[in-house]
Amino acid sequence: MPNESGKVSGLTILSPIIDDDKAIPSHDLQIRRYLAGLPTDEESPFALAPGTHLARLVVMDDVIYVGMPACEEHLKSKYLVFESNCDGDLEGYLRGLAANVPDYLDAIWSHCVGYPGAANVAAFVDYMKACQIETTFYFAAVNDKSVPETLRALRTQRAVADFVASHQGMEPARVQREFAQLVAALKTQPIPKAGSMGPRRDIKTGGRNE
Amino acid sequence: MSKLNETDIQGFTLRGYNLPVARYIFLEFTDAERARELIRRLLGEITTGQQWDGGKPESTVNIAFTHRGLAALELPDATLLSFPVEFQQGMRKRADILGDTGRNDPVRWDPVWLDGRVHAWLGVNAKSAEALEARCAQMLALTRETGGATLRGSQDAAAAVVDGAQTTKEHFGFTDGFGNPDYLGVTRSSQPGQGKLMKDGSWAPLATGELLLGYADEAGELPVAPVPHLLASNGTFMVYRKLHQNLATFRAYLEEQAARYGGGKEKLAAKFIGRWRDGTPVELSPDRADSSIAQDPAQSTNFKFGADLEGTRCPIGAHIRRVHPRDAFGFNGKLIDRRRITRRGLPYGRFAAESETVSDSDDRGVIFMALNADISRQFEFVQQQWIEYGNDAHLGNDKDILMGNHGGHGKFVVQGDPTATNPPLICSRLPNFVELRGGDYFFLPSITALGMIALGLVDPR
Hints:
The structure holds 2 protein chains of 2 kinds.
Chain A (H helix, E strand, L loop, with lengths): L3 E2 L2 E9 L10 H10 L8 H4 L3 E9 L18 E9 L2 H11 L1 H8 L11 H10 L1 E2 L13 H21 L4 H17 L22
Antiparallel strand pairs in A: 1-2, 2-4, 2-5, 3-4
Chain B lengths: L10 H4 L6 E8 L3 H11 L16 E7 L1 H6 L4 H4 L4 H5 L5 H4 L21 E7 L2 H18 L3 E9 L2 E2 L2 E2 L29 E2 L5 E2 L24 H4 L3 E10 L1 H12 L6 H9 L17 H4 L24 H5 L18 E3 L2 E2 L16 E8 L6 H9 L23 E4 L10 E4 L5 E11 L2 H9 L6
């Protein structure tokens, strides 16, 4: 079923970018410059707001003409593409973005045609839905778990692996006692911050090793 | 696919010579015209891929160039710029991608690699030390006579001598050199398990273009190659890496972990690598080394991992399973057919028996040379994704136990079952068993291409 996969929603949005000859630099360039400076770790807006597994923002200038025998075609507008795999229903997710990171949203989408601003939540949600197209493919690693479940599972996996490594050959009663302590500690610890568990990396422009 | 022209392809590209001693000579070209004259004089010396009807020669000579070397030979800019990016950059600039950081950082490499003046690799293999000395002296005399190159350094390597006999062992004590792939059109005494896996379970040669430029690869594409076509065709790229082996660390770590392992030390060593020290594949014989398997060409490389997805026979992270996963990733092995490399090379330094005291600072290791049509897609992918990262094998961030740049972190999991002699074990705080001491990326051209270079006839138009 498009747009939903188990507990996860897929969101694909195409927002037309404002075409204004008087804007210097043009709005698409302003979006690109802003996106290039966004943090990708736990300070990312998609980590600060809840529910994002994966998000991608792309400025799509046009379809590229590759020469004969293809026919030359062009888009009517430049578009901002927003793709996201998120928890729960779409409306709740969009409201979460508007509530937590309105300044980021406005900084990005204010370059798009008809954007009402995140302060007016109902209008924001309507706008995003109006720009939505169907999502049929999902990030394979989501596994129908929520973001908090995934973060907790990652930490548990690491902690249990470390526990096993450091308790091999130990007397069983002690292993059991310390394992119970580990389980109790894991239960009481807060969920790790989104974006905090991956390796540090800069924004990359492509998939090749260059 | 018609038969390859073996007289046009360097012998080193087509086959491992299995000669016991070698010297790799590193040259710098200081004058393009004289350097071309040197190559012209060397042309008759280069060993081709022709079959040796009269037995092996006393010695062989092969040549390869770095991108800087080709520039020093004054190849046209339009040709130089048409080489793949990674070759133009050279291995040192690829350090971040390859995980050559920390103890493997280029600042710690042998000095010969630090000033960017290695232009050519001259590989001499020989039957005996005498033959090697004689041929090398002859080569160096040629460089002096022509004034075509200066010697930047050289590296000796030799088959490990164990109890007075030449072997194919490496310094950690494992028999090496089993797994090179077969390629369409390359004449070779092949054995099952060396090519690509077919739907019916048989093995077939890989497409020629996985090794040689100018031929279709496994995707039916021509590998990225320089212009003109004639310069590239029948050539290949070579990755040269000097890998120092910390033998004392390896032995101590194996002892320490084996003390906690119910299967015993030799079994644990075999679990690390995926082969027992005599070469017996763990997948075929999980409980004991079996020379009848190791020495049988019908068996020694003829195995799959698909029936052992849990890794209770051969661990999922065992070295040979990581670098050649066969069918372990599903899809009948199709995901790996464009990630294969051909290995050449020999150990360097004296082989130390188990009874001998050793130190990590002893000069011993292996000269690893990999041949492939596309360094980025083949060698670099294997190094980056399968050695320095574990995601494809579902091993998270775990690195290859043997080759990984662990820096005292990471882990290796021996999957097990409830039997007392095959228990699970997690080895953590992994040291670097192997350290990189330098190397570079080389272009190993055809005989025709060497002639074009020598005569200044490389024309990119």
